[in-house]
Queue: 2 jobs
Job 1
Amino acid sequence: MSQPSRNQIDGVLMLIEQMISRDGGALSFGSYAAAEGRLVVDYDKGPNGGCSECVLDAESLKDFIVEAFETRGLNIEDVVLRS
Amino acid sequence: MHDMVATASKIEVLNPTASDYGEANSPIAPRLETLEGKVIGLLWNGKPLADVALKTVGAIIKERYPTADLRFFPGTIRFTKELLAQATEECDAVITCCADCGACSSWLIHDSITLERRGIPSVTIASKGFEHDCEATAAAFGMPSVRYVVVPRVYNALTAQQAADQSRPVVDDIVRMLTVNDVEAATVLAEAEADHFTFSGGDTIEALDAFNSFYISNDWGDGYPLLPPTAERVEKILSGLEARRDDLVCHLPPGMGHATVEKVAINAAMAGCSADETLVVMAALRAIAKCPPPLDKSVLMSTGAFSPLVLVNGPIAQRLKVNGARCCLGPGRDNHTNIRIGRAVTLSLKNLARWVPGLMDLDSIGTPRKFNLCLAENEAESPWEPYHVTQGYRPDDDTVTVFHTTGEWDHPIPGFIDGYQLLKALAAKMPFADQTSYLVQALGHLTGFEDGRLLLLNPDQAKAIFDDGFTKVSAEKVLYQHMRPRISDLIEPLRGRKRDGMIRPEFQWLFELSPDAARQESLHAFKSEQCIKIVVAGSHTPKPVTYGWLTTPITEPVTAAAGGAAA
């Protein structure tokens, strides 16, 4: 697997954001440390963030982000969600 | 006469197929030949009454396929790895339920994709309103074709009986989605990796023949000889566009291929389009892509003969010589632009969206409408405002409207008393019994799943109706009000649907009438007057033509920007 470019990171985050945007959630790029494979994502839960059935919980969201990169052959070791 | 000089010749042409499908495309698993003798897993994510839905669906499948083994798997919103492993080990196919909240929709589709990648065909039952969550998740995890069906309401707002009732109508779709195979698309993708191809021959004609033979054998054409999409020809189109070659026009259904400006230009080049004509093609493709899911795929992947009709409005029609007058949907010199544009739309659907018979076009018999349906409105001779103005555009806007047509009927009216009587005569000859989706529950709750009629009315008849004081909208209303078939005729094609519990509750009474009453009473053939559209076209002879359509027609502006944003 290869390291993602900034465009690829933005593209994947845009796709994941689609899953939470209808409940007011939003994701944006924070930072990416290629050496550690760590991606920091700014996460706004939105007004429905407290509803566990409405919005993906933080652990699910992190897993989804990592897996979405894996699906594209891109390696992310760790995702940090920053509220 | 010119002598043909036979010298060795070669041509280099560009690959017309999409480079990418979805975001990181994976095909779905091969479907089963039958459910007979198979183990079908019913995976419940713990949502209230989703278990009732699964057991209802399972019972119907068991009735139809007595040797099928239906196994119920209770789980949670996020299925455990162990449960997914067990389902993989035991099942030939799975049905999951229910996607009726944001998080559970995402997880169900995610887990269905996991099973698909393990070779297990799956279908998810989703509630209306959560299609977006299903589509977003499918895109994120690289399987845009993952299958789901939609039921009208959220299960936990229903009684157990209502939950069972709303689940029965989707069984047909579930069975079809588990058994209709379109994974051959992966083969096409593999063949499409080269950027270009070179063909040689003893002379130019032989090289052209070799090119056409290869493209047609790959199903990259419509069967007629193609113009070679050479780099020079494609660059000429691209140089006339403001958009960049890699700009995305749309993700084109049904295959959701990346329709970039360059790829659309290649297909337009094969049809002989100019740059300006390619802008019209791009607008038509965007309109097709804007059909809301899941109908965007369903209408093109149907076993019925659906085909897009492209209507061009605005000054661009005259500038490009898109014909809206005599024989505008026929062959010949006057329709050269219509033919180029319509053909480029068809080629783009085939090559950028896998709209290929046996792949993602599952049509039973087919129709010549799939070759080419493009015309302009005869705005110059119409007494009414053009179609696109009725859709909120200005008269000087250039637009394309796409109707997914279901059939074509010509119905001459040899003479008429006045405009009102003409409308009644047109209504009397209007075909209505091919589709009656507003009466049934199969997809009937989905926005845009309405049947309608597009009446191509010649200018003289339009003027007679206009002179009697009818606006276009009021004329459409009269047509709607007078299309009232006998109830006995309306319900006869629906008796099988009635047997399967698919008639909407508010129309059950139709089947409770006595035979005499059903013959004497009538009902609207369509859901509302918005289902009737009039477009003025053709020459002055009184020979109107009607097309049936399914899904709400979508109008898209012709713009210089690839994605349709304001230029």
Job 2
Amino acid sequence: MTFKKLTVLPTATEILLPAGSPLTEVEYETPQRLIPFGCRSGSCGACVIEVLEGFGSLGEPDDDELDFLEDLGRTGGNHRLACQCRLRGDATVRVADDI
Amino acid sequence: MPNRVHNVGYGDRTPFLNAAASAKLRAEIDRQLDQQVVEWYANVPEAAHLEGRNVDSEYYKRNLIETAWRIRMLRVSEAKALVEIAKRSPQAAQVWANYEQEEMLHDELFIADLEKVGVSREQFLATEPYLSTKLLTGYFSYLLDHEGPLGVVAYSYLVEYVNVKLEPRKLEALKGSVGESNIGGQINHSHTDINDDHPGEVWAAVRHLLRDQDDVAAFKRYLREHQTILVQYFQELHLDTIAKAEQPV
């Protein structure tokens, strides 16, 4: 089993997850609420993250996610909905509300 | 002082298995299923019939009919399972609801393929399902009433795992024996299972339903019991089609 590292800012908490795990797993790895997940289906926008490193490690966003991020005004190109991501390589992210 | 509300899935939200333990158990379960597949081919009469070059027409049609009936009847049980799952784990219920949404109308895909080989919708509707098909539905009801939703979800994991692993080989063979233009519904069904990673979806629900080692042991047992009932179905199918045709008049 291969593990990948997710670093969540601003606490710089490092979490190791099996490669391919959904980022929603973060919620069960630590009692801290590092990412504020809501619907977990890409429709509420509670879990917007800014990807500081390893954008390609989180999989490709689909058109629905890109459209919604645009609706949310996150058009910089380095944002994702955490609930739609899978950790395929190391990445560093920051919850958008903390930017 | 706690209130009187139960069965709403709150409390400790930390799953029994963390991500790594879940992946490890899934690999163990998949090894069990690989062994079950070996036993399947060894013990079920004509287990590889649909993977061969010469497909018995009655066997093929009846299998499609029973598959459509199985989907129609089990979607009722699986909808009831959603209620029980939601009582225990809203996380699992969300996954299960999405899975059911994707599978709910797949009976139509098989009915479409039936029409391609000359079995009308009316003929399908007039066909009484096999007893083994009804008993599978009955087992689901027993599980929901007396053991909980894990056994129902276990059935889907078994079916999805085996489908993704074996269905492409079967469909490739059917392209030659039945004709690619006649099996479009089955190909579409398989696309959903593979492209939407249905084994992964169902496992995500399983993981949130497992609460202790007793549940893990029960899950392994459910996989074997479901296979036992499916063996009964394929025995009934064989007796009613290929074996019947081979009997002297």
